[in-house]
Specification:
alpha/beta; 3-stranded antiparallel beta sheet; Rossmann fold; 6-stranded parallel beta sheet; Pantoate--beta-alanine Ligase, Chain: A,domain 2
Length: 283
């Protein structure tokens, strides 16, 4: 039986009586197969699993979809029940940010080389908001392990930095991107896509696979591989590319044009009003 907990004091009380190791699976709710894959990994490795559901106001910009972000606590609880989650921690904003104005003015700020690249170029406060909320939940829950998906690769690197910067006693676990049968990466925002848009969106992953194949064949440099993938996407005017880049696996630095492995291709694009991201590793 999954227990729903809403206050910081209550979650601390149950944690004090819970078996270790303890896993934390951070989410903003509207759970899907990607989240379920994280839950399954946590259940496989830990004695107690906590899923938090919190739509974090600090990681949304003024023109982003905070108010429209999908929320479905009833459906989320059902999914957690079906997957034997021990506790769902779903606090109100005031529990996490007793002084939200101070939190907005003094967020935890990752270094520029992580914060201002890729998604950070158009979402300026996003990764400060992510770092701030994850630090807050880690301080409250004090888990042994915390689970994230590799789809949000830049976020994953921010969390690695956060754990190292504050010397936090937690192990970060990264899990492979979960995908629909078409290859489209699962996202809470996918439910806003029409069927036609969803079919078109599947081409994002196809373009990543094309770039990887062209690079590994030795026929094309990284820049040429990216160009070929952009040409592949050009028949789909509905796809508005924000970036398509190659970044080093270990630190997200830019890579040499003749690199053949040890990096990721990453893409961000909008289809209608929906922003989607994805990546593929070139090993």
């Amino acid at each position: 039986m999954t227990s729903l907990i809403k206050s910081v004091q209550d979650i601390k009380n149950v944690i004090a009586e819970s078996e270790r190791p303890l896993a934390l699976v951070p989410t903003m709710g509207s759970l899907h197969e990607g989240h379920i894959s994280l839950i399954k990994a946590a259940k496989n490795e830990c004695r107690t699993t906590i899923v938090y559901i919190f739509v974090n106001p600090l990681q949304f910009g003024p023109n982003e979809d905070f108010n429209e972000y999908p929320r479905n606590i009833t459906g989320d609880l059902k999914i957690c029940e079906e997957n034997n989650v021990d506790f769902v921690f779903a606090p109100e904003a005031g529990e996490i940010y007793p002084d939200i104005e101070n939190a907005k003015k003094n967020p935890i700020t990752p270094p520029d080389k992580l914060r201002n690249i890729l998604c950070g170029r158009t979402r300026q406060n996003h990764f400060s908001g992510v770092a701030t909320v994850i630090k807050r939940f880690l301080d409250i829950v004090e888990p042994d392990f915390i689970y994230f998906g590799e789809k949000d690769l830049q976020q994953l690197h921010v969390i690695k930095w956060l754990i190292k910067e504050f010397n936090l006693p937690v192990t970060l676990k990264s899990c492979p991107t979960a995908r629909e049968s078409t290859g489209l990466a699962y996202s809470s925002r996918n439910k806003y896509l029409t069927h036609e848009q969803e079919v078109i969106a599947a081409n994002l992953y196809k373009s990543l696979k094309l770039a990887k194949g062209n690079t590994r064949s030795g026929m094309f440099s990284i820049n040429k591989s990216i160009l070929e993938s952009l040409i592949f996407l050009s028949p789909f005017p509905e796809i508005k590319i924000e970036y398509f880049e190659a970044r080093d696996k270990t630190n997200l630095d830019k890579v040499a044009d003749d690199a053949k492995h040890g990096f990721y291709y990453l893409i961000a694009a909008r289809i209608g009003k929906i922003r989607l991201i994805d990546n593929i590793e070139v090993t």
